[in-house]
Amino acid sequence: MLARVAENVYWLARYLERAENTARLISVNTNLLLDLPAGYAPGWEPLVDISGGRELFAQQQKRPTEREIVHFLIADQDNPGSIYSSLRSARENARSLRDSFPAEAWELLNQFFLDLAEDFAAGLNKRNRFDFLKRIVLSLQTLTGSLEGTLNRNDAYTFLMLGRNLERADMTSRIVDVRAAQLPAETAELRPFDSLQWMSVLKSLSGYQMYRLARRTRISRGDVLEFALRDAQFPRACLFCLQQVVFALRALPRSEQVLKTLGDVCVFLEDADLAALDQAGLHQLTDHLQIHIIRVHDDIAGIYFPGHVAPTADRGRMVAKAERVPISPEAACVT
């Protein structure tokens, strides 16, 4: 497979997953704010942090109001991480893959984008927002199902799995990190609302029902962290996603360096004492986890996408994390 084709498939998967996750986040946050008291509600700014768009949002000199943030995340064409921009980039990648991908998948994505482009104003309206975001999630899941059911299990499928699962692992760690940071110190007054925040973490991952089936217990901080970060069966848990990346990479040549990096990530996550972490410790853990995920991406890009340049949204993510947790020159090199 040509490096250009492999890179397009990889980014197609990441953009589709990013758009779907962002739609889930906005929908869940809308409902969460209705359930929490005004003094406890986290507001809308955390969603900007989860998406990695804090610097760009500040540069645009927008006010941190619901309308401005929802527009930034849904329809802002200057925000490369918005739903609109993610779908537009996915469509452009898919257009270049029409000779390699099932025609049905291209037609689904192309028609979905064209229809949605006319209706983005609906997503900014509180009355229509839930149905609009639900439509995005269901349409993207339909597209994912189409690819799963029709794409040959060849190198294209391998890079599709790499992109999808790395994006899932990254987004799950971001959701846990930012949502956990919003929780104030537990008091008798706020204790009844604590479970709502952790429930929102599960619902942001579409994992609430699977959590109840797997844990069969009330929602608690420790159980949610265990489920979201390293459950062996939940397909959006960080460890599960990283293990899927390991499985996919074994089918590719010259993957030894990436597999070694992934092994370090998995060991780091498996050894973490989640029950003993306070808020600061959890934030540090997710920071290091995201740095490890960036290293995996850099290794994949350096080996299989020579001459690559990360998209703007992802360069911003990488720079922000590199500034917060320094990486040694030896660890950052791609050999």
Characterise the protein shown here.
The chain is mainly α. It has one domain (3-332). Helices cover 73% and strands 0% of the residues. The chain contains 17 helices and no strands. Helix 2 packs antiparallel against helix 9 and helix 9 runs antiparallel to helix 15. The radius of gyration is 19 Å and the shape is globular. It starts with a helix and ends with a helix. The relative contact order is 0.12. Residues 322-335 have low confidence and may be disordered.
Q: Brief overview, please?
A:
The chain contains 17 helices and no strands. Helix 5 runs antiparallel to helix 6.
* Element string (H = helix, E = strand): HHHHHHHHHHHHHHHHH
Low-confidence segments: 322-335
Radius of gyration: 19 Å
What is the end-to-end distance? 21 Å
Our estimate of the beta-strand percent is under 5%
Total number of helices: 17
Shape: globular
Features:
335 residues, mainly alpha, 0% strand
Task: Break the fold down into its secondary structure elements and pairings.
Blueprint: H1 3-35, H2 45-51, H3 54-59, H4 66-74, H5 83-95, H6 103-117, H7 120-124, H8 126-150, H9 155-182, H10 191-204, H11 208-215, H12 221-230, H13 238-249, H14 256-271, H15 279-304, H16 312-324, H17 329-332
